[in-house]
Each structure stands twice: as structure tokens, then as C-alpha cells.
Fold this sequence. Notes:
Layout: E1 2-4, H1 22-40, E2 43-44, H2 45-59, H3 72-75, H4 77-93, E3 100-105, H5 111-121, E4 130-135, H6 139-148, E5 152-156, E6 164-167, E7 176-180, E8 191-197, E9 206-211, E10 214-222, E11 230-234, H7 240-245, E12 261-264, H8 266-282, E13 284-289, E14 292-293, E15 302-305, E16 308-310, E17 320-322, E18 325-326, H9 327-334, H10 346-352, H11 355-361
Parallel strand pairs: 1-13, 3-4, 3-8, 4-7, 8-13, 14-18
Antiparallel strand pairs: 2-10, 5-6, 6-7, 9-10, 9-12, 10-11, 15-16, 15-17
Helix pairs in contact: 1-2, 4-5, 8-9
Amino acid sequence: MLSFQLRKLVRSVHTITTFPKNILVQHDLTKYFKDKISISGPITVAEYMRESLKMYYNSRKVFGSDGDFITSPEISQLYGEMLMLWLLSMWEKAGCPSPINIIELGPGTGVMMMDMLRMLKQTQYNALDLSIHMVETSKKCSLEQANKLCCSELLKDMSNNFYQCGTTSEKYGMKKIFWYKSIDDIPRNTFSLIVAQEFFDALPIHKFRKINDEWREILIDIENDSSGKFRYVLSKTYTATSNLISTIDYYKCSNFKNETEIEVGLDGAIVMQKLSDRIIMDGGIFLCIDYGQDKPITDSFRAFSGHQQVNPLHNPGTVDLTADVDFCRLKNVAGADILSFGPIVQTTFLKNLMIDLRYKVI
């Protein structure tokens, strides 16, 4: 696994809920949170983030200059091409196993896979026995991806582990491509080339503060009944997640100063464990592309709207929410049986792949 930091603000997330207009999204979600907090008490940051992003990614155009952020793959075709070359290089070093699964977590608009497959078609490995597997729970995004990859006669089939499949156009090698809601559904016993482009930063995180040598969870409450605005509050008692992280050596309280606040991506750790198990059992290479740090994250939870940073507790469902990735924790979860490298800064990574030379060629 190689993890490296990315300077551009890019998110790929999975959603299932659709609202027709932004104003309805904001109204319905704010009311939902307010009602739930009034009945059950403050909610976790993870729940707030999860529900907000579900609605956000299906309620408006989020990618591009007229969205809230621009993805690196959409800036230049070189990006996806260089990633494909790196994956092929690592695959060669692994002994060129066949067949192969190419797996992308959170494919977004599908642009990166387009560039990767176009580059693959230009190599001597175009006829390689491989299939493509997209982990995407958003039907809206999956259809956009299929359209970009020119999949004709798209088959929708909920009776299988995949919910839709097709064949890419001749331009992209005429490869079989499948869409899944979970990485658990992708067939096993096949060597995999896995890439996650700004995927982990969009997974829900929990926030904690160390108080008197114990972790207390930071929750979200209503500021007051009339305003409907939200605020952070400190849990007065232990929560299920504060008890959980107290059992994880990586978050051992004695390693942190009192009043330290940390962000913990439990969802991200689960995904990393699944990837690790797959690589150990079936063989594979995983490239994780995100921005973050090689140490516990303290205070990175934030929001973006119209390419500007905004308050993450304002207008839930209409702004992009993100949190930095703890690369050290991902490597820690992967375990000693996985050979891990990085993180490395994006610029360095791409220059090492001689992206400048590729730019001159095209």
C-alpha cells in the first residue's frame, strides 16, 4: 500500500438518498437533526457527517468549476495515466499474475478510470485478462460513470452481488465492468489493483477530547430551540465509541496530553481491514490517494461550498464535509503482513513517475 497526500480538494463519496432541490435538502435535514437531538440528545459527528453527505452528493452538482471543488483527475488526463503506469509497474514486480481485478473505491465522475483504461490500451497489456469493479453506492454517480465509459446495453441486476454491469467501449478496451455497493461483494481469489482517489477523507469521523486521562466524545447539539443552529458539546458520560477507542493501543490516552482533541475514522479503519484481508489472501496492490498526515489527526473536520471553506455545522446537506486522513493509522490497521510505503507528497510522486516527460510527449 502506498499512501500519499494530495493538495487538491477532491472527494468521492457514496450516497443513496435523493432530494430534488437544495432548499428542500437543507430544510429536511436540519429538521431531521433538530428533531432527533430534541428526542434522543446530541448526535455524533460521524452521524452528522454520514447523513449530510448522503444528501449532499445527490442534491446538486458538486464537481467542477461550477460545483464546490475540482478533482485532480478532471484537471488533466495525465493524472489517471500516471496512476495506471504505476499500478502496472507494481504488478510487473509482483510477477504479472493473471487474471486481474481493477478496483476503484468511490469513482466519482468516472474520469480517472477513463484515463487509466485509455493508457492501458496503449500498452502491451491491452489484451490482459482483467475486469473492472467500481465500488459506488450512488445510483446517480454510477450512471454518470457508465455514460463516460461508453457502456452500451447496461445491465441492471440486483440478484447478483453487483447491481449493474456492462462493457466499456472499444476506446477503453472493451472490458467487463461491474458496480457494487460494498467491496465485500467483489469476487475473491483474483489478484487486485486497487485505487482509492480521495475516498477516505469523505468517510465519517468521530471527535474526542482527553479529559482527566480519559477520552470523552465531542458531540453535536442544538445551539438553542429558536435558531435551529448546531454546536459542539462534550459528552458528560462515556459513549460506545469512547469506550471502544480506549481499547485500541494506537489511541492510548497516555500518549496524548490532556485537553488534546483527536479525530478517529472508524469507518476508514474497517475499510482498510477489508482491503488488507483481500490483499493477504488473494494478492494485490493498493494505492491510497488523499490528503492528511502520518500521525493522529487533531482538528481537520471542515466544509467547502463554492470552492470556499465554510462552517461545517451550517446548512447540512448542502456543503461538502471532509476530514484529513491518518495514514499512520491506516498502515497500523493493515498490519505487519502488508508491505506499506508512504505517505509521499503528490508532486514528488508524479515527478518520480516522470509526468513532465509524459506531458512533453502528448
